[in-house]
Fold this protein.
Amino acid sequence: MKDLYSFLESGLLEKYVVGDTNDAENNIVENFISEYPEVQSKYELLQDNLEIISKLNAVDAPKDSLNFILNSLDENKVIHFHTHTKRVSIWYSIAASAAAILFATTAAFFFLQNQQLIDENQVVVEEIFDLRSDIENNNSKLESVMKQFMRLNNPETEKYIIRGNRRAKNLKTVAYINPKEKTSMIEVVSLPQLPEEQCYQMWAQLQDKMVNLGILDAANTDLRTIPYTENALGFEITIEPKGGNETATIENSVANIKLQNNN
């Protein structure tokens, strides 16, 4: 996993997306994309961001050019020739009108295009700042996930599956304890439904007391950090009033487990 983290930090994936890599680097990136879902997810995000920027830079011809031209032409500005003048042909009038229309069309087109480009450039700048912010947030989330992943795969991390007793047969949580780094994490797999006025609360068991580790929520199944308790003998899960309790109600215990390093 160290190689994966180094790869994500190297910026090689970003260079690959914009086509700034050689064949050897392409092979490295494509191997990581095919092997790691995290890289695949970031690759797809970068592609989406690049596509957005490309679309923002595209310039369409103004849709209202014709109306603008027609409104801009003043009938009094068209050159009129007296019909009684034999030397002036009707073709001169047509040519003059065509020249006036062409000039007005060109001027209107460039004016509208310039205004549209100014507006679109401002939008692009704002979108780029938003995209940078999104990328930074996603990188921060990815880094957090990577740190948790590394903790779970640390040889020093001990895994404890906590199952419910007969009062909560479907209860299952997984605790990850690393006594060396002094970190604790909990993952809620399943919690039987309780009445609205009750909740599940987790405790760390010490020699002479129970330490509150927080309320367990069936709606929050994400791996999350819980307080690390030094010299804990085990874990206990009890049913408490909604909002939690200051002291554990041992008679309402629904699950418990002893820690291996204290057996």
